[in-house]
Amino acid sequence: MSILFDETFRYTNLYKAFRKSLKSDGKYKPEALAFQRNESVNLMNLQRSLYNRTYKFSGYITFEVHEPKRRIINAPHYKDKIVQLALHETLSEVVIPKFINHSYACMTDRGTHAAVNQVQKNLKVAKWKWGKGAYICNVDVRKFFYSIDREILKKQYRRMIKEDDILWVMDEIINSGGLIDEVGLPLGNTLSQLCANIVLNDLDQYCKRYLGYKYYVRYADDVVVILPNKEEAQKAKELIMRFLVESLNLEANKWKSQIYPINQGINAFGYKIFTTHKLLRNDSKKKIKRKIKKMPRLIARKKMTVEKANEMLASWSGHARHADSYNFMQSIVKRRSYIKYDPHDNKLMINKEALKCYIEQMKNGS
């Protein structure tokens, strides 16, 4: 038994993973509650099945989500979630140091905002270095999670991880994707995000080490590269798209994969990014306006609490604060009397008194 396997599935680490699972809403589901009623015995039984290799993945629970767009989520059963949380903790320490510095998805101290800031920094330096003739190359992978070749993925993580017992558990989880489709990774699996980064690490290494692209950033399946001119940007787009097909058995989204003059900026990672400023994307603005419009009716029907509405507004405001969004926030406040702006925390929130009046007007039909 390898040191990594023992470190991953020793009781203390499984218990830590179990405690982490309790931070999600899924802790109130019947399966989770049943596990929690006898947590020590269940964790020991789970550990025993892993150590004697009788552990079997239990399949998936399927449901739909509609934010940010309609997606089918296949979530693991509770015990399998604990196994993946434990695996993710130790595998991250092994594989993340092998990634490039400018890969940002689902890693501690990186994330969306760090990626956006790096793209803006690259735009500024590239414009100073090459002038307005510089170009942006943006490549997006088509249906990324649903298209991942699991056999290619298994070869990739075998280059990073050598312990057979850990590979056995990972294979058990990755092969479970066959319960859903011939290719792809389930979006609900905790390991899927880490595996997605493993898959596209080959692309990162190709672009950074072989092609020598200095101003390169990737967040999930979205790549942004800044090049000196239109010809080099077009060539980069073609090379990246060819690499995806030939080396990773993936396909670029031809409609979303484009090149742009540097002065035009780039729509990426949830923002419109320019050398001098960042703006919210139109779809983000439309989405929050729709949600705010629905809030009074939902609260009046007790389908939403004021606290939940404020959580949604705080979450969106946290996203909006990273862009030049003050004027847009003020336009919402002017249009919706039940929304106010908190200048101290730079966020939108419910004006409770105004909301009561608004709901009364709704009931009276005025």
How does the SSE layout of this entry go?
Elements lengths: L2 H7 L1 H11 L8 H8 L1 H13 L8 E6 L5 E6 L1 H18 L15 H20 L4 E6 L3 H4 L2 H11 L3 H12 L14 H21 L5 E4 L2 E6 L2 H19 L9 E4 L4 E3 L2 E3 L4 E3 L1 H19 L5 H15 L5 H10 L3 E4 L4 E4 L1 H12 L3
Antiparallel strand pairs: 1-2, 3-5, 3-6, 4-5, 7-8, 8-9, 10-11
Helix pairs in contact: 1-5, 2-4, 2-5, 5-10, 8-9, 8-10, 10-11, 12-13
What features would you describe in this structure?
The protein has 15 helices and eleven strands. It has helices at 3-9, 11-21, 30-37, 39-51, 78-95, 111-130, 144-147, 150-160, 164-175, 190-210, 230-248, 282-300, 306-320, 326-335, 352-363; strands at residues 60-65, 71-76, 135-140, 216-219, 222-227, 258-261, 266-268, 271-273, 278-280, 339-342, 347-350. The strands form four sheets. The chain has a four-stranded antiparallel sheet, with helices on both faces. Strand 7 and strand 8 (271-273) form a beta hairpin. Helix 10 (190-210) packs across helix 11 and helix 12 (282-300) packs antiparallel against helix 13. The model has no long low-confidence stretch (mean pLDDT 93).
What is Rg? 24 Å
Strand runs, count = 11
**Strand sequence of the main sheet, in spatial order?**
4-5-3-6
Secondary-structure element sequence? HHHHEEHHEHHHHEEHEEEEHHHEEH
Number of helices: 15
Distance between the termini: 72 Å
Inertia-based shape: flat
Mean pLDDT: 93
Strand content: 5-15%
Helix content: 40-55%
Secondary-structure content class: alpha+beta
Could you name the ranges where pLDDT drops below 50 across 5 or more consecutive residues?
none
Q: Report the sheet with the most strands, covering strand number, pairing sense and barrel closure.
A: 4 strands, antiparallel
